[in-house]
Design a protein that fits this description.
The protein is built from three helices and no strands. It is mostly helical. Helix 1 runs antiparallel to helix 2, helix 1 runs parallel beside helix 3 and helix 2 runs antiparallel to helix 3.
């Protein structure tokens, strides 16, 4: 994994805003994808470790969203927008026996 995404300080304010907005949209997509995989895993869940590849994919989507969120300058509105799906995905991963 990359240690850091290209330094935003080298870009103009407009470029930074566009990059941050694109990252925000990607985070939303990752959370949606993670929730979908978590729902599939929950339907077939029979105890910790039984979620299979769907659980792993949901966990990876969560980790990617968390990492990218830390690397992105989000607005207050963007932070509020991702809070609900982030909470939902965390809850579902915990239900699947994952540590988050």
């Amino acid at each position: 994994m990359l240690d850091s995404i290209s330094p935003l300080r080298e870009n103009s304010p407009l470029q930074r805003e566009k990059i941050n907005n694109a990252r925000f949209e990607f985070v939303l997509s990752e959370l949606e994808l993670g929730l979908t995989f978590a729902d599939i895993a929950i339907r077939g869940f029979h105890g910790p470790g039984s979620g299979g590849p769907e659980t792993r994919k949901a966990q990876l989507a969560y980790q990617t969203a968390m990492w990218l969120t830390k690397e992105t300058e989000l607005t207050d509105l963007q932070v509020r927008t991702i809070q609900k799906p982030l909470r939902e995905l965390r809850s579902k991963l915990r239900r699947l026996g994952e540590s988050v």
